[in-house]
Design goal:
Chain A: This is ABC transporter substrate-binding protein. The complex is a heterodimer of chains A (312) and B (347). By secondary structure, chain A is an alpha/beta fold. Chain A has eleven helices and eleven strands. With 347 residues, chain B is an all-alpha fold. Chain B has a single domain, classed as Orthogonal Bundle (ABC transporter involved in vitamin B12 uptake, BtuC).
Chain lengths: 312, 347
């Protein structure tokens, strides 16, 4: 699941720099509105908006909230199965912008399914996506309240980190070859907000294959590695294979963190919580030491992990 | 190639090898001089006290093994191309074009699916399960393609090339299928395992590859006279006392080994086995005693320089080296198609 989610984050960032909000059908939502959601971050937003019971199908990459996993799947966001979406009698398909899915989304529109394409690859896009969903589902007030609390959380994190030294951070998405988060990614924004400096900030794209030599030469002080996805994946605060480079400040000072990508790589409504987690990795003196749940998802549902049964 | 050439002498062979060794040495020096890091040859040869910023360590442990690996992979793919061209008597034969690389890719993906490939998994003494699977995939593909292309005991070159093209399409589809059924944990490894990219591995992997590749190249070099005879056709070679079937069999196995080893480490690096042997044949003539060692040296130089471009042209980003080789090789392939229409000018 996770590598695909990483690819999703990469692709959504690559293809969605300019949010082009779809013009919604002016028909008001009504009871019985059936939603199919193929965007993981949109699924979390719908949960926050209390709309879980309206979801009748999900995309292959959707895994949160866990209660959704029992619903039928309609394929990945970039190739939704049109027949399945129609079979579920969906009124709205909630997805992320994807060039690959352009034809299938257009076909779905022709066949009467409203397609809401969201851009959740960065914080402003996520805010806009939440507003779009709120407006479309007649939940503008709830969306506004959620946004206000999220904005406040982000502002607080930024203020707490302000004025502190800015450690050099290397955020690893893939290690062999080296794939990192660059400018325009939500990860880059989180690093900055949490008071760090992304050493790949001069890359050309949000996610890029980069020179290992260059990254090593920039002497990162914190390495956050989300590349290990196997069954026995490294998790926690340990150098792992990075101990080859014992001259790196991050290795010498034991500041290499192996993290489940689901905790940091998937953008969306969890950004404030993710940014605070980033803060614990970069500035423990401000945000406190990282805890176990910062490395591996807790088996228990978190604040945004309500099940369908729990939702209003 | 149409002009009469003097027979190859020991001195001629020596000169050719010496010159191309010098070219390779210059390429390696260029590869070591420049990269993503700031250090170069000076830091490598004259270590400063302390090396607190790790410059020399980066050069020794990232750049040096990568340059050596590029040389080995380039040499392996080029020699594979040269001997396939000798066997099939067609300059368009190349592991990539013939579909052998596609077979190796299938093997590599299957290794990831079996849990013995990918980043770190299955590694022992620098060996990766992908190497074995890629070799078996390459060998299986070549045997299959050769069987299909052989009709009534003779192998039409055009049928063979066409079969290779179709097998490439088939292997592409099969890889898409395998990606579809792969667990999502494996998808990431599959995508990166197929990318034409020279990795920075440890010296263990470099040593294992060096042993395998150099041994295969040496054995193929020892068959150089047989390849020369086979330019007369299988019948002609048989009349000269060559055991054609044995030469074919060994060439298939060793060419597949070379391709499989290269693909298992660097993914799909196309066209290098096509471009370099052909250029060398134009310059040095068709004698395989000269062509095989020079192909290794020339291919090694070519990929070292291509990889140098790939890792420096968009710093701090990198390009997959397969992009560079394809940009050079694609147009060259079309040039060959336009100028070598009969396919019988392999002399």
């Amino acid at each position: 699941m996770r590598p695909a989610l990483i690819l999703l984050a990469i692709l959504s960032a690559a293809c969605s720099n300019n949010l082009q909000e779809q013009k919604p059908d002016p028909v008001s939502p009504k009871d019985g509105l059936r939603l199919v959601v193929v965007s993981p971050s949109a699924a979390e937003m719908l949960a926050e908006l209390g709309m879980l019971e309206r979801i009748v199908g999900i995309g292959d990459f959707v895994s949160r909230p866990p209660g959704l996993n029992r619903l039928p799947r309609v394929g990945p966001y970039n190739a939704p199965n049109i027949e399945k979406v129609l079979d579920l009698r969906a009124d709205i398909l909630v997805t992320v912008r994807s060039e690959a899915a352009r034809a299938s989304n257009a076909r779905l529109r022709d066949l009467g399914v409203e397609v809401l394409e969201l851009d959740t690859s960065h914080w402003e896009g996520t805010r806009q996506a939440l507003r779009t969903l709120g407006d479309r589902l007649d939940l503008g007030e709830s969306a506004g309240e959620i946004l206000a609390s999220l904005d406040e959380a982000m502002t607080t994190i930024r203020q707490r980190a302000e004025g502190s030294p800015s450690p050099k951070v290397l955020f690893v998405v893939g290690r062999d070859p080296l794939y990192v988060a660059g400018p325009g990614s939500h990860i880059d924004a989180m690093i900055q907000t949490a008071g760090g400096t992304n050493i790949a900030a001069d890359s050309d794209s949000p996610y890029q294959l980069v020179s290992l030599e260059t990254m090593l030469q920039r002497l990162p002080e914190v390495i956050i590695d989300t590349s290990d996805n196997g069954p026995d994946a490294l998790r926690g605060r340990l150098p792992g294979p990075w101990d080859t480079w014992d001259f790196l400040p991050a290795v010498r000072e034991n500041r290499v963190f192996w993290i489940d990508p689901d905790l940091l790589v998937i953008p969306g409504i969890r950004l404030p919580a993710m940014t605070e987690r980033m803060g614990r990795l970069i500035h423990p003196e401000i945000f406190g030491d990282p805890v176990e749940a910062d490395f591996e998802p807790s088996p228990e549902p978190g604040p945004t992990e309500t099940t369908i049964e729990d939702s209003p | 190639m149409r002009t009469a050439r003097k027979p190859l002498t020991a001195a001629g062979l020596l000169w050719g090898v010496v010159i191309l060794t010098a070219v390779l040495a210059c390429s390696i020096l260029a590869g070591l001089s420049t990269g993503g890091g700031e250090g170069g040859l000076r830091e490598l040869l004259f270590p400063a006290a302390g090396d607190g910023d790790g410059t020399r360590q980066i050069l020794l442990q990232v750049r040096l093994p990568r340059v050596l690996l590029a040389a080995l992979i380039g040499g392996a793919l080029t020699v594979a191309g040269a001997v396939f061209q000798a066997l099939l008597r067609n300059p368009l034969a190349d592991p990539f074009v013939l579909g052998v690389s596609g077979g190796a890719s299938i093997g590599s993906v299957l290794a990831v699916l079996a849990g013995i490939g990918g980043t770190g998994a299955g590694m022992a003494f620098g060996l990766d399960g992908r190497m074995l699977f890629a070799f078996l995939g390459a060998l299986g593909a070549l045997i299959l393609i050769e069987k299909i292309a052989t009709v009534d005991g003779s192998m039409s070159v055009y049928t063979l090339l066409l079969t290779g093209a179709i097998f490439n399409a088939f292997s592409g589809a099969l890889i898409y299928f395998l990606q579809s059924i792969a667990s999502l944990e494996q998808l990431h490894d599959i995508v990166f395992s197929l990318m034409g990219h020279v990795p920075s591995t440890g010296f263990g992997t470099v040593a294992v590859l060096a042993i395998g590749i150099l041994a295969a190249v040496l054995y193929l070099f020892l068959q150089a006279r047989d390849y020369n005879a086979m330019t007369l056709g299988e019948e002609g070679a048989t009349q000269l006392g060559v055991d054609v079937e044995r030469v074919k069999r060994r060439t298939f196995v060793l060419g597949s080994l070379l391709t499989g080893l290269a693909v298992s480490v660097a993914g799909l690096v196309g066209f290098i086995g096509l471009v370099v042997p052909h250029m060398l044949r134009l310059v040095l003539g068709p004698d395989h005693r000269m062509l095989i060692p020079c192909s290794f040296l020339g291919g090694a130089s070519f990929l070292v320089l291509a990889d140098l471009l790939a890792r420096t042209v968009i710093l701090p980003g990198e390009l997959p080296v397969g992009v560079i080789t394809a940009l050079v090789g694609g147009p060259f392939f079309l040039y060959l198609l336009r100028t070598r229409r009969t396919g019988h000018e392999f002399r």
